[in-house]
Each structure stands twice: as structure tokens, then as C-alpha cells.
What does this fold into?
Amino acid sequence: MTVAQTNLLKNIPSRVDANITLGMVRTGKVGSQHLQALKDLTSFNDEKISDWLDISVKTFRSYKKPDSNIKPRIQEHSVIALSVIKHGIEVFGSIERFTEWLQKKNFFFDKKPPIEFMNTNSGIKFIDDRLTGIEYGDNA
It folds into this structure.
């Protein structure tokens, strides 16, 4: 991880937290750097991340430019996604191991890969809850 990524993640909650996320969005603390971090921290392409955010690839790419006017729901979704990524890194020890887990079929996710749940805030919260379970000894 780069210094910029580490600094950005310091301000992201390590668990999905609606109050902190809302505060960040309402005070204008979420910007293009958060969307760029989704790309930089993961091995996923623009198409996959655009799918999570329910926007076109073209819109995602324009939102990664400095001074972009990003819709609040996209800001919120990006912070929540970064929160679960941060939590996943803490649980699995590396982004590589976490993304590997995200892409494997999982009993708790109706035998689908957890990554398929990244396109909704409640799906991300469910992933976050499973990560907490893993921390406390539940099976993955």
C-alpha cells in the first residue's frame, strides 16, 4: 500500500458504520480519491467497481478525476466499500487473501461469492458481519 492509500484508510471506519459514513458525506470529506482507492486497493477492473456502484464505467472514470461532483449515494457506497475492504485486510492479513475470499463461493452467501453482494449497502454490511464472525471463530 502506498502512503496516500494508508493515509486515506486511516480516516475510513474499519467496520461499516452508517453514522461515520453519513458524517463524512455530509461534511464533504469524500471525493475522487476514495473512488480511486477502490481501484488501487483491489485487483478489480473499472467494470467490476462500476457494477458495485451501479454507474457506468464512463461515469466511474470521470468520478476518479479531481474536483468531480460525485453524487452522495456514490460517495456513501464508496466509503462503505472501503470500510469492508479495510476490515477484510485486517481479518485476512492482506488485500490478496481478502479478495481471494471475496471471489470464492460461500455457504453463507447462498453458495455465491461474497463479491456478488458488493453492489448494495446491505450486501456490504452482510459481508462486514461475516468478517466479524470470522474474527470470532465462525467458519468462513
Notes: Residues 3-135 form one domain. The longest helix spans residues 72-92. The CA atoms of residues 28 and 61 lie 20 Å apart.
